Structures are given as C-alpha cells and as structure tokens.
Amino acid sequence: MADGEASSGAYREFKALTEAADRKFARARDVPLYGGGVDHHSRKAFKAYTRLWRLQQERRRELVAGGLRRWEIGEVASRIGQLYYARYLRTAEPRSLVGAYVFYEAIYSRGYFAAAAQVVVGGGDRHQGLLIRYKELRFIARFLVVAMLMRRAEAVDHLASRLRSLVEETKSAYPIAAKELTENGTISDQSGPSGLIDIHLSSEISDGNLPANPQKAIIYHPTVSHLLAVLATVCEELSQDSILLVYLSASGFSEQNITSQNYASSSSYARATSVYPIDKPNSNGNSDNHLWLGPRGSGGPNNLYPEDLIPFTRYPLFLVIDSENSHAFKAEKGEPAALLLSPRIASAMPGVESTSNGSQFTYFLTAPMQAFCQLAGITSDIDSDTYANAEIILFSALEQYEGILCTSVGLNNVWGQILPDPFLRRLIVRFIFCRAVIFYFHPEENGEHIPTCLPSLPESVAPNAEAIMAPILELAENLVVSDRFHFRHSVRNNKK
C-alpha cells in the first residue's frame, strides 16, 4: 500500500510540475522571435522542464507504477527540444541546434510515439490514438526541419519517407475523426519526442562562457505592419556601433506570381531583420522602381520602394537584395548604404536547368563551391580527391580576395565600416567571387547577368584583375570545365 501511495504521489507531482512548465513554455513560445523578454521566458521554461526531466530520471520506477505513460515523457523531451530550436532561431548558436537534434534523434530511435499510438489503437481508444498520432506527425516534421539544418541527408530522406507513410496511414485509419478534430480545433500543439532517455541536462540553456551570438529575425510571408514592427524593434535595440543587415529575397514583378521569401541574419556587430514597406499605389504602372513581395491572403500587392528604408539608414545599413528587379535600389535614398544586388537574369549552361530566378545569387553567397558547379553544368559525381582539391583552391582564393580587399587603397568608407565584422566581410568576399565567375562565364559583357554593388568596390577586386581571375581559372581547370568559361587571358599564357 505504501508503495502504491508513493507511486501515486510521484505521478501527481509530475503532473503538477508538467502543468506549471507548460504555462512557462506557452509564454516563451508566444514571445516574438525579436524584442526583449525572450531570454527571461525561455530560461524559466527550460529550468521548469529540466526539473521535470530530473524527476523522471530519479523516480522513473515510481512514476511508471503510478500510471506514467511513455508519450507523456515524450511531451517533456519535445518541449526541451523545441526550446533548444527556438533559441537557435533567436541566437544562431550551433550548440542549440545540436541540442534539439540530440533530443529528437534519441526520441525517434526509441519510437516512443509510434509504440504509444499502436498500444492505444490496439486498445480501441481511437480518439486518444489520433491525438498521439498527431503528436507523432508534428514531432517528425520538427525533427525533419532540424535534420535539414544539420545537413543530415540520410536522416532527412528517412524522415520524409516516414512522414509520408504516416500521413497516408492516418488518412485511412482516422478518415472522419482526423477531419473533425482538425476543423473543430480540438487538437492542441503538444507534439514532441518521448521517452525515458538518459540525457544529462544543464540548468541553463545558454552558456555564459561563450561569446555573444548574433540575433536574427526570420520572417516568412509577414504582413507589412508586422515587418515594420520587427524592424523598428530591432533598431531600438541596436547599439551605436552596430550595423543593420537586411537580406531580401523576393520577386520583382507581380505578374510572375512568385512566392516571396524573406530571410535575415546578423552578426555580433549587427542585428538584422527582413525589411519591407507599406503598400503604395503604383500610379504610373512602372515595376522597375520596387520589389513585389507577393499577396497575403486575399490582400493586394506588397510593393517595397527604396524610400521605405530611409528611416533605417540612420544606422550603417548593409542591404543584400536577391531579385530580378534588384536594380530598383540603385537609386539610393537617405544616408549612403552598402548594397549587394543580384543580376536581373540568372546564368546557366545551355541545356542545363538553372536555379529559380533570384536563387543563384544567394547560392553563391551561401555555398560558393556548389554554386560554381551548378553554373558550370557539372551534373555528374566528382571524384572525391578532385573535389577536395577544388575546395582548397576556393578557400585559398577567398582568403586572397579578403587580403586584397582589406589592404586596398581608396576603399569607400561605407565598406570600411562594415569590413571589421567577419560575417559581413565573408558576404562581400563571396560576392567578389560570384561577380568574377559570372563575368567570365559570358563571352560578352552583359549587365543583365552580372551582380552589382554600391558603392563600387576597389579596382583591385574587379573581375578583370589578374589576382581575381587566376584562382577562378585554376578552379575551372581542376574541375575540367575551363572551356565553359571565357577567360580573356590565362595564367599559363602569361608564363610563356
């Protein structure tokens, strides 16, 4: 009897702590990914779930005897994983992303949700079975996103296949119940991993011994008022020596009906967000003076004009625009800003499918080696030694470009105030590589294909500079694609 009372008491304590932790989790979840108060709420939620986690580790036998179900432990582990992932979104700390992956992988490998769903279904409780299945689907979707960010290709393929099979299985097993629960909104978002997993947790989700990590706002399909609120909030928190980075990826023309995507990142010296304007009537029908962000719901077009950014040029502004209509921002407004503008037309080998409009520029800025291979039409597998050598050549080239840029005479002050930041400097160096590669890809100079920057970078890093061209030629020759470029002269010829 005493053992039964102890078990019941342990389970009641677990349920009470779970309810308190869930309330703290809701507060942390509802706080926007920008602005103050985020760390306060997330830390309190993390400590609450850490206490729960320790309870289930120390009194596991009593809890199970008292009626604890495996998927309930999964709820706790899920929330911890979500807190790790939310912190990654706010701070870009890799260790937070790894923390989320470790929890999700351990949960999935033990199959706590799958086992729980099968037990419930076998017992005939279809409503409870659907709830647990819903949790499993949400968990796998979250795990899939984290796996993609971790570049775990094998895990991504497996999880995507598992998600598809579960969706089909759920449609056949719960055709009516799933529809009713979804429409009535009776399923709450309480998904997550599960399990009696022996993972040690520290009491703090952040590490005070590590240097401050950049904050960022990632905004997808926001309303204009939301975007302006994000930008205003970010600017309020910027220190006087900060640089505001704004990365826009959007269509230029509404006629194309291309979904816009907004991404922003920042560095330790700069916080960033996506920036978009209030809709303005386009009385003259000229689409060359704005970016089109696409409709939201049944609303009208969202047009971004250069003058919409004027209030935010009080801080040093670094603007990257990936759009076929990026040239609209060549007409600078307000204080001088640093601009990297994508080409109007993406480049591709004849007969080779190009990336979507606007995406090639971002590809070069984020994965220059892969972007070079895509542009050169390399579709077959490359020998591992050849590819490794190519990466060495590229790494050396980017280091060389960085040295030339930082020691150039006559560097514009707009660029000079940005170069001290390593993240922003890397974007500039990769832009130099991107511009030069595309420059030599076309037999004749064509402004439609070449990315541009404002103000102009020094001539020492121009595409036709020998120090810029030579590594690209070496890279092309290493990959046996030099015949696909149009080098004005070669290193080999100079040596003769």
Largest sheet, in brief, is:
5 strands, mixed
Silhouette = elongated
> Overall mean pLDDT score?
76
Number of domains: 3
- DSSP helical segment count: 17
Count of individual beta strands:
7
Tell me the fraction of residues in β-strands, as a range.
Answer: 5-15%
H/E element order: HHHHHHHHHHEEEEEEHHHHHEHH
**Overall helicity:** 40-55%
The parts where pLDDT drops under 50 for at least 5 residues are: 119-123, 180-200, 255-285, 489-496
What structural class do helix, strand and pairing data support?
A: mainly alpha
Span of the ends, CA to CA: 96 Å
The neighbouring-strand order within the major sheet is: 2-1-5-6-7
What is the radius of gyration? 27 Å
Characteristic key phrases:
496 residues, mainly alpha, 5-stranded mixed beta sheet, two-stranded antiparallel sheet, disordered C terminus, Protein SCAI
Describe the structure.
It comes from Oryza meridionalis. GO terms for molecular function: transcription corepressor activity. It contains 17 helices and 7 strands. With 496 residues, it is mainly alpha-helical. The protein folds into 3 domains: 2-184; 214-312, no CATH class; 342-496, no CATH class. The chain has a 5-stranded mixed beta sheet, covered by helices on one side.
